[in-house]
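$ fold --in a.seq
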Amino acid sequence: MHKTKLSRKFWLALVIFSLVGQVAWVVENMYLNVFIYKMFQADAKSISFMVAASAVSATVTTIFVGALSDKIGKRKLFICAGYILWGVSILCFGLIRTDVLKGLFPHAVSAASVGVTLVIILDCVMTFFGSAANDACFNAWLTDSTDQTNRGSAEGINAMMPLLAILVVFGGFMGLNQDLPESWTVIFSVIGGGVLVMGILGFFLIEEPPVNNAENTHYFKNLIYGFRPKVIREHPKYYLTLLAYAVFGISINIFMPYLILYYEKGLGMTDYVLVFAPAILLAAVFTALYGRVYDRKGFRVAVLPAMGLLIAGYGVLYFTRQTATVFIGTVLMLCGYLSGMAVFGAMLRDHTPQNKAGMFQGQRIIGQVLLPGVIGPAIGAAVLQGAQVIRNSDGTESFLPNARIFAAALAVALLVFVALIPLVKKPVKVSE
């Protein structure tokens, strides 16, 4: 099959909007927890509630806005306007400071409690704009702009961005003292401003793919389109892939929330960045190249080595403690993780019904984000019950993550092979 060539403008838009979007999600997924903990002394219950509220907001937004973009037949407007408003909402976090809140709410019992409440509300607002622009419409745009000859290559670039974004954020702001409110003003200003500027540039960079919306005029019917039993029966490979992807994501989310803590606290690696950063870069390069395997050989050939790398990485990380072998295990694990994301993502795009990409982004985020984000960390927390506890210098106690999280992740990863059986088995030839 002849490979369809994609324009330079497409690749530029893909790299920029994927990376900038993931940088914004790093702030939402990793930095806001630290922000309300350090600035407003938020407890674990508040942080947990914020994460859950954000996950629900993302899922609902993606379902509703994805279907709306199909009805209107435009992706570019939603992406650009969404990124602009996404950036504005991030900028607003810089205004939530204790000194400002005391002036605005002089009769409040606690400025800290007001701050936590405002952050949670603004987080849901930010998630609405971000999910509308990125989860719903950017992903639909990527599906519309590619075909079966080049989706692996495009998804390889897209899949490596979440971890590259972590390097950008942590590397860019590692010198700031996060105990000072001024540092958070800088963080939110730089990232919010960057997202806003990208939204404006998008009007010039993004090429609008053709979307035939003649069949998508009934909005409320479109909302439930992907949930209909008839549609599920008509597109079995999409839903079977999504099921396998969800199990894959659960495996990842068992250990990922605790990975940095495991390096730093569990293994005592004060220089864990020297292990993690190069491993991310190597895995990113590998994934960018590995996407071509999907384009040339297909899903069955591409997915099994990716899962093999992931499981091998789990095994090394479970059995070893030395820096060199931990580095090897991390590289293997990240290569399997990112290449697996690329392969599953490309397969989903290949089996998304034409002109209905927006309607199916809600199903995608349920399988890729919501279920793994709820089930995976819960398994990880259960596995770590009874873990060793240490006493901190201030008298508080903290648990030490241990290698059991990789054993649990490996066990769930083996279940992915069960979910893959109907997708990778060769069709039986019937003799005449």
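$ fold --in b.seq
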Amino acid sequence: MKTLESERLILRSFREEDAADLYAYAKLDTVGPNAGWAPHATIRESREILRKFITDDDVWALELKQESRVIGSVGLHARITTKGEKVYELGYVLSTPYEGHGYMTEAVKRVLAYAFDELNLPYVKVAHFVDNDKSRRVIERCGFRFEQTGIHQSASYGPKQSKIYMMTQNEYRQSQGGNEQ
């Protein structure tokens, strides 16, 4: 993945040496369940996930510049709908001790700029489980438009009710003070 930078963060590809940082937040019971996966039980499990991130190359490590530490991740995942349409969906997690400082909003806004300005995507979707207010607030601060309620298959907990949002390239441009294209 292309390395992206914001004021306080470097968004970059994961590396093998990120295993300890990944495990530090992935083992927390306040992180994974909000994203639909069980907390990591061992660093070995984190290493396996890390290898998948490296192979798939669709998840950025969020490195906090001032600490040179990975504190979370943001993914921009290509998905195929039931109608055969290719869509891009954001997914993200942040280590609990770093919540409440605007890091995830900053990261998502940087990924949106990349998605619309460089990849020229027509739209991006994002979803959160209905009980995940922290994720909802990030989505709202970033300017996504509510689309519908639906069911997402979580990795560890089965189907869960979700709220699905979307932002088109034109909506993004308007929010940035630009003209529709």
